[in-house]
Amino acid sequence: MVVLFEGIDTCGKSTQLELLKQKHPEIITTKEPGGTAFGIKAREILLESSIISKRAELLLFLADRAEHYEEVVQPNQDKLIISDRGFISGIGYALANGDFELDDLIMLNKFALQGNLPDKVILFLTDIQTLQERLGGKDLDGIEQRGLEYLLSVQEHMRQTVLTLGIPHLFIDACDSIENIHQTILTYLKV
Ligand SMILES: Nc1ncnc2c1ncn2[C@@H]1O[C@H](COP(=O)(O)OP(=O)(O)OP(=O)(O)O)[C@@H](O)[C@H]1O
Ligand SMILES: Cc1cn([C@H]2C[C@H](O)[C@@H](COP(=O)(O)O)O2)c(=O)[nH]c1=O
């Protein structure tokens, strides 16, 4: 089973993935971008904000997704795989960047994933105050520097995309405590 942890920057995905991995080391945990050797290089380019063309940015995220699918997801289909981000981020951030149609983005992402969408999505939803506080506590990369309004619009596109595609999902209140969220995820995943 493939599960995506999704949500905008600082909503708590990595914290929860780490907690889950501690309790269940048998789970295959991975991330996009950065779950493969190619992805580590792509991530550096994507986050340093040197790409001017939003199409080039989209295509590099898609290349990373295709490589990640073949290298990490496909060989582990029989296990529980949880990825810190995936194609819901791919669509949410691209829609917030403008100039793209949802149908085109779905088609491109299905192409990258060889038609195999994840089984479940856990989407963390935050609010402006929490986002501001948590972003304030870190050095911002090129994408985070696009600002609060941009990130909240990504979040809404992600929410709408999950609903439009009808993927089994859990919406998480990212402002809840770390422990409460952990318990909610354990219950949802039945692990
Ligand atoms: N439920 C929570 N309550 C309070 N603080 C939290 C909670 N979850 C995470 N944090 C803190 O918020 C910050 C961001 O968390 P984390 O790195 O897990 O987010 P993320 O979604 O993986 O971020 P990014 O996508 O930017 O890598 C960290 O300092 C973390 O300790
Ligand atoms: C997969 C994917 C990611 N992004 C953005 C989202 C974040 O700002 C960064 C990744 O950094 P993180 O520390 O792993 O959260 O990349 C995107 O714009 N498009 C995508 O497809």
From TrEMBL:
The keyword Protein biosynthesis does not apply. Residues 5-185 form the Thymidylate kinase-like domain. It comes from the Bacteria. ATP binds at G7, I8, D9, T10, C11, G12, K13, S14. SUPFAM superfamilies: P-loop containing nucleoside triphosphate hydrolases. One of its GO terms (molecular function) is dTMP kinase activity. Keywords: ATP-binding, Kinase, Nucleotide biosynthesis, Nucleotide-binding, Transferase. Its EC number is 2.7.4.9. InterPro entries: P-loop_NTPase, Thymidylate_kin-like_dom, Thymidylate_kinase. It catalyses: dTMP + ATP = dTDP + ADP. Phosphorylation of dTMP to form dTDP in both de novo and salvage pathways of dTTP synthesis. Belongs to the thymidylate kinase family. This is Thymidylate kinase. It comes from Sulfurovum zhangzhouensis.
